[in-house]
Each structure stands twice: as structure tokens, then as C-alpha cells.
Amino acid sequence: MKNKKILVRDIGKMSFSDAWEYQEKIFKKTIDQKVQNRSLNEKIETKNLLILTEHNHVYTIGKSGDMSNLLIDKEELMKREIEFFKINRGGDITYHGPGQIMGYPIFDLDNFFTDINLYLRKLEEVIINTLKSYNLTGYTINDETGVWVKDNNGLSKKICAFGIRASRWVTMHGLCFNVNPDLTYFNHIIPCGIKNKGITSLQELKKEDIDINEVKLRLVENFKLVFNA
């Protein structure tokens, strides 16, 4: 029987490297359970865990990322106290920091559907639904994973980026949703390698303080709704 229940674990603020290690342990445990299940007469259910966190200032770049999209050198990174990691997800370079919700679903897609493209579309739907609750219209752009909004001048700006890894239909990494981060940190990269569009946040669009914990609650509700959990 498929286990569609989503367990939520908010681990507060954690360094990117510690959160990555934390994910890897759960990711490996889930895969090991699936491998073991193949040899068991009685199957043990795999869990679907949604990890929520915030990070210190960090740039991460995926396996297919282009280092020329990092616009400052190592010395400048150290001076500005920004960490940098090459990691095992898809996608190019992005920024994580305080004021962003990092959502890391470690889901066994065998519990839902075995389709990575559909999984990404579902993640986008979660964000679009969450934006609706703030009277904002989020949308997607063909061939560019992410969720976008129009700013007050009608320009397309990204509000949520995605980058995932999957093995044996188990996922890790996930999404970074701009609630109220310092957007100037995006000036030192070409976010996701896209040169002709900007970055925005809930706070910038609404022109008011946004309670990040309230956003987390709405995000979790929409995860459960979209994944029928």
C-alpha cells in the first residue's frame, strides 16, 4: 500500500553543509529501505519527509552549472562571508540565505507517481497556490523550471527556484522560496544562468513585512493538497 502521508520537520536555521548532510542521511536510509523491501515478504513503508529550514549566506551550483555565472572571486566571497558549494542537484547557480524558505522534500515517488517532470510541476503548483493566498499570480515559463511573478512594472521576476536530485525515485534538495531575503546577494551571480529576468520576494511585492512562519504554514498546507497527502 502506498504511503502518501507527508511528515514535516522544521529544523530552523542551519548551515547549508549541515542541512545537506542531514538530507543525505535520510535520503540514503530511504533508498536502503527500498532495496531491503525487495527481499522482504512483508514490505516496510517508506516515509515522505518535508524538511523546512533557512541558511546562512551561500551560493550553490548544480552539476550542469556554469562557473562564469558566479560574478565574484574567492577572496570576495570570504570578505562578504558567503559560502560556496558545488552540489549534486540539477540546475545552475543560486543564492540561499536568511529570509528564504528552503523546502527539501525527501519523498519516495513510488508512493505518488514515478515521473520527475510531473514532480517538478507539482512543486511549482505548491508555490503558485501559496502565492494565491497572498493575492499574487505566480506562473511558469516554458523550458525554465521555477515560479515567476510580474513586478509592479510588469517585468517577469523569479520568486522561487528549484533544483532536485533523485535516485530510485527518492528525491532530495528542492526549492528556495524568497519571502524576505536581502535581494542584493543576487547581484553577485547570474541566478540560474538566466540573464534577462530579475529576482523578487514576497516582501518586495507586497511592500510589507511578511511573517515567514505564516508562509511556512501555508506552504505545508499546499504540499498536502497538491500531493493529495
List the helices and strands and how they pair.
Elements: E1 6-13, H1 16-37, E2 48-54, E3 58-61, H2 74-79, E4 83-86, E5 93-96, E6 100-106, H3 116-132, E7 139-141, E8 144-150, E9 156-167, E10 170-178, E11 198-199, H4 202-206, H5 212-226
Helix pairs in contact: 3-5
Please tell me the overall pLDDT. Answer: 92
- Secondary-structure element string: EHEEHEEEHEEEEEHH
Structural class: alpha/beta
CATH architecture, by name, is 2-Layer Sandwich
Q: Which fold does the CATH topology refer to?
A: BirA Bifunctional Protein, domain 2
The level 1 CATH classification is Alpha Beta
Number of strands: 11
List segments where confidence is low: pLDDT < 50 over at least 5 consecutive residues.
none
Shape category? globular
Largest sheet: 8 strands, mixed
Tell me the β content.
25-35%
Helix content: 25-40%
- How many domain units? 1
**Span between termini:** 14 Å
Tally of alpha and pi helices:
5
Radius of gyration: 18 Å
Tell me the CATH superfamily: Bira Bifunctional Protein, Domain 2
How would you characterize the overall build of this protein?
The protein contains five helices and eleven strands; from the N terminus they run βαββαβββαβββββαα. The chain is α/β, with parallel strands linked by helices. The chain has one domain: Bira Bifunctional Protein, Domain 2 (BirA Bifunctional Protein, domain 2, 2-Layer Sandwich). Helix content is 28%, strand content 29%.
